[in-house]
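Ticket #4471: structure output looks truncated?

Reporter: J.K.
Steps to reproduce: submitted the chain below (401 residues) through the standard prediction queue, then opened the result file.
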Amino acid sequence: MALAAGSATQTGRLVIRNIGLLLSGRIEQPILDADTIVAEGGRIAAVGRAADCDTGGASVTIDAHGCALAPGLIDSHVHPVFGDWTPRQNQIGWIESFLNGGVTTMISAGEVHLPGRPRDVVGVKALAITAQRAFSAFRPGGVKVHAGAPLLEKGMEEADFADLAAAGVRLLGEVGLGGVKAGDEAKRMVAWARAHGIQSTIHTGGPSVPGSGYIDADTVLEADADVIGHINGGHTALPLNQIRCLCEGCSRSIEIVHNGNELAGLTALRFARELGQLDRVILGTDSPAGSGVQPLGILRMIALLSALGDLPAELAFCLATGNTARQRRLDCGLIEPGRAADFVLMDRAQHSAGTDLLDSVRKGDLPGIGMVVIDGLVRCLRSRNTPPAERVPEVEDGGST
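Returned output as attached by the reporter:
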């Protein structure tokens, strides 16, 4: 079949039937009693049993053949630059490759790797607005990249954040990667950003790139950013007692990333569960980075936290979907009417020791992805990056969406 181009929009009605397991993304009810989804205009129109859904008049019908369906995965922490190229690894096509890992949405934590990145206030604002505009108009493989995340530099005033917000900028890059590193100075700018509807993320742990610095728990708490970026370090983590302090000392999002300290990540997960606040935990890759580009990074985090963190696999998927969507104020990530029709269809990998998809993830295996849908359009068939799935969905009619 012909796959939808990046700028395409859904027309007609999409019906996905014979879903074997429907993961909702909602941590309060991670599994839905449903086997059918209907989407129209890029939005979920109905979810339920086939007999209860109006499936007539479909322009495209997908037979899931018993595969599991989950919301498209969200990577809460990436560092894009321009287009589908990363200068950090001099690699082209990395975002489209993440699509083959089930990622349908990415959140920029700053376009920090741009060669010659401007450090003056005018340049900082210009870069952020340009990145926001560019990725609004360009979607590699259909992936939604929320970009334009300026790094805080000395000399920025509240009027600058008002200008950025008026131009459509909704994110701050990692606090601590720019010239502003002190807690009191960051707190003032984070508050200005929040007042204008701009969400903030703070670097946590040891320095990761030239110009970044060590950000300890006291600085994180004082700055009071909306997201505790890579609480498990990017790459070097804080001492575990400081990670506990962060989990207990505020109510902000707890972000665990692939390119961090695995022990620290598992420990942060345990602290969040002990506090009864698993809904605060979100997942990212913090890529591209020195350790490379990881198209399967979010899937690997799900498997790691389930297998070694003793977290039911259906809940682990929520950390990378509904949790992130709610913490990041996105319209995707949950299977419910009105949300974006972003889905990943997958099954147990061939020859996995697990008895089914959830059991295989709980045993540490990655699932095999058979299809990815974004805004009601088929964007990817059998993944070139995951292991082959035992079952794969099939487009029955309407060969092009």
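Triage note (M.O.): checked the attachment and the full token line is present. The chain has eleven helices and 20 strands.
Status: closed, working as intended.
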